[in-house]
């Protein structure tokens, strides 16, 4: 398949698909990222989930970028790289918006909201202060970095929680349900705050106007997303042929247009939230019929995920990194993570869990991966479009720390969850809590008509989790 892909692209573009050409670099990066993801996904340790494939994709791009001879051959134009990452961001935001379950969100109890808001807010604030003092970032860029790092990765947490749920660990206390549901809320808050800070950072004019502009961009993006989502309720009409294909095309097309169009219009903070909201509102309107659209979007994500993580890894050039920046970035990351762990423990203090369960929730609320890769390079891309070297340096610092957070927290978080889950969580004593669950359907391996799993929880009243 790799040879056929190369052959087709070469036969159309000729020189562009030879070493040193832009398309040669993109195709090579894509194939190597897919291979790296497959290799990491096949690393199985006893009684543990497989390593996240995204780590292999990230390392593939990093290696291609930092081998002297290979770097010259695998060249990718900056504008192409930025555009492909933005398209991947649009796909993942649509995926996140469609997977949000409105009924489940309404039923979330206070502990879930605390878990979503407080650790993120305190970690972002701590990172802003620390990066200002240690890395020398301006305050607004410190908060950009903070909200990039503040999001928890569903790509790590959800599969790990599903494995524990299958064994019954923490089921009666609702811990797997709590963590899986809170991931979505956590990511929404992080992306919303990130887009607000991004709008402030790249705005020009009076300071008070810039501060006001960020929330206005977020409000405008949300309103536009609601309008476009309602539009997709009725167009195309339900009696048309190829309805799933048309809905998938429109939701993906409008999302990518929102991301790129907001940049063209000079309101970059509006695009990401608009995409997330329009997918969520459209999914509510489609009801159960959104499952086939989710399946189409998932297929697009399988294509763009290797490109996203591979391109992120390829942005890191060892020769251009300052050793002090890397070590200071790691120090800032560890300080912010320490605050996050403390606040997470405090957030679940009065939630009815015992000490072991509180410790497990605290450690499980640490992994970072998907969101960091999706939005970590956005500020750098915008700085490059402004041709401002100082802003580009800030953007590269944000991206560097984001990549470090993925490499450090994703594997450690996955291992801690799988190792400590059976030791810190207890199986239900009452047999009625153990309900049959088709995990192939939950993980997306079943058909589009696969029923959503029903998980009984005593504390959070979450009857339906749509992953």
Automatic annotation (TrEMBL):
It is a multi-pass membrane protein. It is found in: Membrane. The keyword Membrane applies. The chain crosses the membrane at residues 23-41, 53-76, 112-134, 140-164, 185-208, 214-232, 244-261, 267-287, 299-321, 327-348, 360-379, 399-420. Belongs to the monovalent cation:proton antiporter 1 (CPA1) transporter (TC 2.A.36) family. Pfam families: Na_H_Exchanger. Residues 40-417 form the Cation/H+ exchanger transmembrane domain. One of its GO terms (cellular component) is membrane. InterPro entries: Cation/H_exchanger_TM, CPA1_transporter, Na+/solute_symporter_sf. It comes from the Eukaryota. One of its GO terms (molecular function) is antiporter activity. Keywords: Membrane, Transmembrane, Transmembrane helix. This is Sodium/hydrogen exchanger 9B2. One of its GO terms (biological process) is proton transmembrane transport.
């Amino acid at each position: 398949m790799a040879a056929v892909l190369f052959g087709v692209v070469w036969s159309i573009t000729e020189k562009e698909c030879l070493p040193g050409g832009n398309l040669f670099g993109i195709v090579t990066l894509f194939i190597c990222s897919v291979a790296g993801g497959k290799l990491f996904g096949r690393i199985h340790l006893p009684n543990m989930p497989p390593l996240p494939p995204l780590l292999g994709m990230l390392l593939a791009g990093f290696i291609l970028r930092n081998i002297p001879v290979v770097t010259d051959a695998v060249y990718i134009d900056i504008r192409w790289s930025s555009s492909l990452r933005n398209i991947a961001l649009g796909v993942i935001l649509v995926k996140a918006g469609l997977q949000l379950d409105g009924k489940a969100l309404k039923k979330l109890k206070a502990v879930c909201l605390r878990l979503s808001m407080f650790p993120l807010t305190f970690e972002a604030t701590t990172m802003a202060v620390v990066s200002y003092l240690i890395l020398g970032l301006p305050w607004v860029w410190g908060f950009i970095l903070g909200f990039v790092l503040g999001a928890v990765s569903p790509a790590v947490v959800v599969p790990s929680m599903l494995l524990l749920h299958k064994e019954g660990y923490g089921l009666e206390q609702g811990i797997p349900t709590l963590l899986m549901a809170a991931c979505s809320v956590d990511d929404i808050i992080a992306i919303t705050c990130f887009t607000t800070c991004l709008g402030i950072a790249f705005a020009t004019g009076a300071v008070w106007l810039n501060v006001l502009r960020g929330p206005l961009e977020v409000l405008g993006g949300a309103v536009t997303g609601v309008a476009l989502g309602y539009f997709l309720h009725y167009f195309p009409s339900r009696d048309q042929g190829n309805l799933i294909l048309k809905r998938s095309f429109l939701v993906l097309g409008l999302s990518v247009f929102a991301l790129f169009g907001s940049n063209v219009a000079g309101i970059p903070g509006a695009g990401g939230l608009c995409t997330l909201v329009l997918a969520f509102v459209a999914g509510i309107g489609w009801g159960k019929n959104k499952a086939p659209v989710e399946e189409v979007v998932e297929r697009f994500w399988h294509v763009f995920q290797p490109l996203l993580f591979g391109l992120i890894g390829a942005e890191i050039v060892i020769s251009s990194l300052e050793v002090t920046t890397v070590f200071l970035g790691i120090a800032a990351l560890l300080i912010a993570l320490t605050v996050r762990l403390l606040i997470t423990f405090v957030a679940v203090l009065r939630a009815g869990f015992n000490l072991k369960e509180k410790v497990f929730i605290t450690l499980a609320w640490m992994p970072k991966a998907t969101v960091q890769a999706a939005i970590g390079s956005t500020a750098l891309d915008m700085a490059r479009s402004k041709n401002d070297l100082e802003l580009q340096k800030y953007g590269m610092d944000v991206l560097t720390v984001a990549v470090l957070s993925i490499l450090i927290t994703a594997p450690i978080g996955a291992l801690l969850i799988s190792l400590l889950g059976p030791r810190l969580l207890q199986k239900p004593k009452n047999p009625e809590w153990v309900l049959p669950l088709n995990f192939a359907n939950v993980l997306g391996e079943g058909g589009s008509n696969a029923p959503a799993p029903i998980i009984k929880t005593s504390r959070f009243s979450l009857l339906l989790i749509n992953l």
